[in-house]
Amino acid sequence: xxxxxxxxxxxxxxxxxxxxxxxxxxxxxxxxxxxxxxxxxxxxxxxxxxxxxxxxxxxxxxxxxxxxxxxxxxxxxxxxxxxxxxxxxxx
Amino acid sequence: xxxxxxxxxxxxxxxxxxxxxxxxxxxxxxxxxxxxxxxxxxxxxxxxxxxxxxxxxxxxxxxxxxxxxxxxxxxxxxxxxxxxxxxxxxxxxxxxxxxxxxxxxxxxxxxxxxxxxxxxxxxxxxxxxxxxxxxxxxxxxxxxxxxxxxxxxxxxxxxxxxxxxxxxxxxxxxxxxxxxxxxxxxxxxxxxxxxxxxxxxxxxxxxxxxxxxxxxxxxxxxxxxxxxxxxxxxxxxxxxxxxxxxxxxxxxxxxxxxxxxxxxxxxxxxxxxxxxxxxxxxxxxxxxxxxxxxxxxxxxxxxxxxxxxxxxxxxxxxxxxxxxxxxxxxxxxxxxxxxxxxxxxxxxxxxxxxxxxxxxxxxxxxxxxxxxxxxxxxxxxxxxxxxxxxxxxxxxxxxxxx
Lengths: 91, 402
Fold this sequence. Notes:
The structure holds 2 protein chains of 2 kinds.
Chain A: H1 9-20, H2 41-55, H3 70-83
Helix pairs in contact in A: 1-2
Chain B: E1 7-16, H1 22-30, E2 37-40, E3 48-52, H2 65-69, H3 73-88, E4 99-104, H4 110-115, H5 124-128, H6 132-141, E5 147-150, H7 156-169, E6 175-182, H8 187-196, E7 222-223, E8 225-233, H9 234-239, E9 246-255, H10 268-281, E10 290-292, H11 299-313, E11 319-321, H12 324-327, H13 334-348, E12 350-351, E13 367-368, E14 374-375, E15 381-386, E16 391-398
Parallel strand pairs in B: 3-7, 4-5, 4-6, 10-11, 10-15, 11-13
Antiparallel strand pairs in B: 1-8, 1-9, 2-3, 6-8, 9-16, 12-14, 15-16
């Protein structure tokens, strides 16, 4: 899956840049949340909560170890949005 | 009297409308240049009151963009003021475990609290908690000794300095960064103080609106500020050749146990607090060279404080100044800000005037320093702070001996 071709990519990019306090240009699909973008546990929690609210999905049951890069996050959100029942509030 | 563990004031740092640096604040005080202006407390401009904000404040250079997101404005002020105080002291000359931090704040992160009601984000709790300042200072300054926060409304900053002194005396730390911080600039806070009758709500000239001990006083002006002092063992400070602004020799801590918001009308708790501080310092009352008053400019405070001063020192026996005339009232930061000013007054040998006060209230039988600065003889001074809740705090500072 090419994260940059996902329809929510631009929105997610801005959200990540804002929460992690990094320039938007650094938010690229292969960027590692911790090693490249300096995220700590509080950032990860905030990113999760903000992504859930912004994209109307739930990360419940998701293995945190499966999300290492921005691309992982974008793909996870895409997957969660396509599998959830329409009109049902996630979570 | 010099105790083996006497305490020196070796660093000062401030952020407030009356001065972004200690030097600028001192200049404002000496020239009676008030920080007050008409201030819109909400974006719509529905709550507009005379107040002392710090409009140009930025924590840039002190906090990263991420750290700014994680902190309330009140804590941002604190980090800047405390960092400056430590730089002013020439660094903290003690191992991490012997460094301590004591912060005072009345409201904690009230701006963050109000803006997040009903839609809190992940950072809501850590931004608004009252002890956030103590965390950020401990982390920034590498202090792994005791770090804690006191909250006694308008006496918080003074209690923080007093308790920090006791910490050094007790041998629990060798250097303490102590002070107060407050940014109560929300519409709800302003409306609440306005409705309580404590604030100046209408005036022709905001810059002259705060007039402690004046017949025409109308109350105080809400201010945001942070002020921090570096306190260290006097022997350590001398050994390393530090510049010593003053020594901190006495601390009084008493309670009115009288009323939720009003001081005891005779100022009995205030008097007891000053007596306790002087006894702690081993200083007789007639040796005191000046008083940096709580002096809010409310009828209740000024008369009670004046009665306490007159009862203890005699009528108009000791020079009194009230810097809230210039700085406004920064609640939990005020006591620390005034401790900074008292240390500067001793260091410079000058008392700044009580700005804008021209006609003394006859109920206040005091020698209030007005119009222009007054030269001081060397010797002990008292900084008073009296709070909602009847919490009293008095600090005795003395001229540093060469």
